[in-house]
């Protein structure tokens, strides 16, 4: 199982308080993750926390491209966390190798064809709407069946756009338009997502559903969840701190 380290180049990240919202601090933190043997660094310039406003395309690109260009010198595998095809294209040209779209291609009609043209892995997350409104969309008859059905629609759309099966990764979208109970239902049935036949990414790090009141305690809960998922057959976990997750996987 791989460890994907989060690099939020934003002033309003829910989990790291925007402490890497500059070129120097972002590059420094990325190189710390590299020293801790991170497998992939996921770089984003737009917050997707509940209630967040979107930033402009120019602002997003200006945040991420200089950092990607610099880190490409280190030879580290990078993904671009974006809902915009233009940002995805610029990031891949700068040295990123994976597109991680939390909207699964729904936010930008050009995204799926762009990913197909670039011939890079594409992570399609389950998504029902923008961060500003997603909490009102957490309505399911059966959250596991409904999320699988909606992910299968994104899989079909991606394949129809020309993304190859080998380049497609899925993410059930923990915390996106889902209550705490919904998140746990998905985790308890993660084998059903793995059974779809695509690599599965889980991004649960430091999220409120873990139940701990502080970020430090949520970090411990995140590591415990990684330990639990280590035998589930998923492809990777997306986390804020690399070393404790790598350590628990080694153990």
Explain how this protein is built.
This protein has 251 residues and is an alpha/beta fold. The protein is built from 9 helices and 8 strands. The chain has an 8-stranded parallel β-sheet with strand order 6-5-4-3-2-1-8-7, covered by helices on one side. Strand 2 (40-44), helix 2 (57-71) and strand 3 (78-81) form a beta-alpha-beta unit. Helix 2 runs parallel beside helix 3 (85-94) and helix 8 packs parallel to helix 9 (242-250).
- In spatial order, strands of the major sheet run 6-5-4-3-2-1-8-7
Task: Note the beta-strand portion.
Answer: 5-15%
Query: Shape, please?
Result: globular
Uncertain segments: none
Helix count, per DSSP? 9
Q: Structural class of the helices, strands and pairings?
A: alpha/beta
Sketch the major β-sheet: 8 strands, parallel
Distance separating the two termini:
13 Å
Number of strands: 8
The overall pLDDT, averaged over residues, is: 92
* Strand and helix order: EHEHEHEHEHEHHEHEH
Radius of gyration: 17 Å
Estimate percent helicity: 40-55%
